[in-house]
Amino acid sequence: MALVMDREELAEFLDEAFPQVKGDFEIDALSEEELVVRLKVEDRHLRPGGTVSGPNMFALADVGIYMAILARIGRVALAVTTNASIDFMRKPVAGADLIAKIRVLKLGRVLAVGEALLFSEGDDRPVARSSMTYSIPPR
C-alpha cells in the first residue's frame, strides 16, 4: 500500500490533532510494509508493580494503527476505531520503552484493519498483540 504521508508529516499531524498525547509517541520507522512506533515510557505510564499499564499499552496500539492507516489515506482526523481487541501476553520490562510494530492488513473505502505487536525495547518476545478496525469517513 503506497504511502501518502511520511514520518514527519504523521508526527506533525498527531501533535496538531491530539495535543493531549504530544511527546508520548515517537515514530521509529515507516515503510509500505510496517510502521514502528514507541511509547516513551515515563513514571506516569506505570501501574503499581512498576510495569506499563494496560491502558497505555492499548493507547500505543491504537495510536500506532491509526497512524499507519493515515500514512496511507492522508489527514483524515475523523477515522475512528470501531473494533478493538488486545491480548496481554507478558509483563513489559521495567524501565524500557514499548515498541509497536504495526501492519495494515486491509485498507478499503470504508474500513481499515490493522494489527500491532508490542515489545519491550531490547526484548524480542511480544508483551501484547492487538487487532483493530477503523471506520473511514466519506471524502
TrEMBL record:
Gene3D superfamilies: Hotdog Thioesterase (3.10.129.10). It comes from the Bacteria. Signal peptide: none annotated. InterPro entries: HotDog_dom_sf (IPR029069), PAAI_dom (IPR003736), Thioestr_dom (IPR006683). Keywords: Hydrolase. Coiled coil: none annotated. Residues 49-124 form the Thioesterase domain. This is Thioesterase. It comes from Thioclava marina.
